[in-house]
Amino acid sequence: MRIIFFMQEYIIDFPKQLKEASTLVGGIKLGSRTEPIHNIIISGLGGSGFLADCLFDLCNDTIGVPIVANKGYSLPKFCDKNTLLILVSYSGNTEETVSCFHEAMSKGLKPICVSSGGKLKDLALNAGMDYIAMPTGFPPRASLAFGAANLFYVLNHFGVLSFDVASSFSMLGTFLDSKQSDIKATSKHYAVHFKNKILVAYAEDRIDGIALRLKQQINENSKAFCWYNIIPELNHNELVGWKQQHHAIGTLFIRTSFENVRNKHRFDFLKPLLENYVDEVLEIQAEGDTFFEQYFFLIHWCDWLSYYLALEHEQDPTEVRVIDNLKAYLNNIN
Questions:
Q1: Three-state DSSP state, 131
Q2: Phi, psi torsion values for 102, nearest 5 degrees
């Protein structure tokens, strides 16, 4: 069954992709802008949209303007000439993102477009907009290394963030390559525990995007349901929902060493409480010296978990036929 290993190859190559992305950014050519940047909007869906959540987590405490993840057909009302607008669609054909491009044009805005081709590429080049080409041949969710490096490059280019993209992503690839064997071993072990269960993942608000990535990967790769919530928000509502036994739920805490000390105490309170209602509560602790390293360590770990869980469920982790069917259905309505 050759197809079953396609996703495995994408995931195992993630460290190599990071290194490749570190060199590809050297070929990006962007124009300049005279308007000051008051906010950043990153518009995209699915694996492309996740890039906005990723940048928010990694940059929110280091840049001086807000980052907004836009995941729909329209742009926010405040989007104007002082917005750094980035439109991301790996295929280039995501209809929501294409819709946002047309809206941006109608408002006289100049979006930066990122894709591997498709309509977005054609529209951007025909309109003379900045365009960044991504490597072709990847499922959108497996193009994270290239998309993240591209967006960091954009922020650095326009002076929003001081960041050595090439060096940082190259070193990150080396770091994750050194951790790959351990990541595979622990994620494979955890997948056995989560087989045929609905996975509930809890993380600190600072890594909201990682929990979202896990949910998306469990949905697409493992063909299973997953929900997540963040601390401290869940302590103000979802906590009360734990009142009975839930043997069909598998619970995972996603941790870093950079947690707010008050959130550490919240995890300490939550774990024994949940152990009264589920079979077990598992934790994954990030490794790495920096928040940047720990963030991508967890992304890579979650990707491997979703892959091994797909194998436990005897599912093809690459296939997303139902999404293709939806796209065909919508195309027939136009």
A1: strand
A2: -65, -40
The confidence score (pLDDT) of residue 328 equals 85
Question: Residue 303 region, left (φ>0) first, then alpha (ψ -120 to 50), else beta?
Answer: alpha
The beta-carbon contacts of 130-136 under 8 Å, at least 24 apart in sequence, are 130/30, 130/31, 132/28, 132/30, 134/90, 135/20, 135/24
Question: What does residue 182 show for φ and ψ, rounded to 5 degrees?
Answer: -65, -40
pLDDT at residue 2, as a whole number: 39
Report the predicted TM-score, pTM, of the whole model to 2 decimal places: 0.94
> What's residue 334's pLDDT?
66
- Quick one: DSSP state of residue 40? E
Note whether 189 and 239 are within 8 A (CB): no
Cα gap 46→311, rounded to integer Å: 22
Q: Name the stretches of the chain with pLDDT < 50.
A: 1-5
Over the Cα atoms of the chain, what is R_g? 20
Residue 100, judged by CB atoms within 10 A of its CB (0-12, 13-18, 19+), counts as buried
Element (H, E) at 86: strand 83-88
The answer to whether 3 touches 46, Cβ cutoff 8 Å, is no
Task: Extract the tokens encoding 98.
Answer: 């294409």
What does the mean pLDDT of the chain come to?
Answer: 94
Pairing assessment for the beta strands 83-88 and 112-115 based on DSSP bridges: parallel
The whole-angstrom separation of Cα 111 and Cα 87 is 7
Report d(CA 68, CA 205) in Å as an integer.
16
